[in-house]
Fold this sequence. Notes:
Order of helices and strands: HHEEHEEEEHEEEEEEEH
Radius of gyration: 23 Å
Structural class: alpha+beta
Number of helices: 5
Shape: elongated
Strand content: 15-25%
Amino acid sequence: MTSIAPARRTQCEQCVGPLPLMARADALYCGATCRKRASRARLAAERARVEGEQVAHVPVELRSRARWVRYSSKKVPLRIDGRFASVTDPSSWSDFGAARAATCGEGAGFVLTASDVITVVDLDHAVECGRVLPWAQAIVDRLPATYMERGRSGTGLHLWFRGSVPAGRRVRRGEVHVEVYSDRRYIIIGDRVPGTPLELADLPPDSWEALT
């Protein structure tokens, strides 16, 4: 039985112009320029898909506040135009949509301010080989179920609450690494932990005891 060869492409997949007469049989683009444009388009589409999923996994309570910045590869907060931002300068922050749409930096972060009464409990080095370590799981179990995400490194956990602490607090004891912030810090938004609420719980008055 004779096989039939597939029809040869005659148009560039990017600009829809004619392919060169001497183009390879499997060529998709008319030249390097269209190849690069197609590659950028694929990257942009993938980024939009990931960010779209992130929108659906960030609580409205955070998305509705103009407390957003971008961040650099060295975790320096940035304005949406790429200039440096400051956690004490509201004019350098943006709304969620603008921060999500910006292309500078590595991603988006949320600035904590005392007036918002939002607290983040940061459990550092809490995840190993995809499993929450016992000391971290014990803290999660002692606190109310709330919006929780995995940090940028993949080994930390951020637990978000309504509430405040008088000042940033830190615990370093053996393998236990806990930091608590509610003002003048920005938190890089990571991936929501599946199964956790898409809303912030109230931070209990005795929460510090639960963390120590």
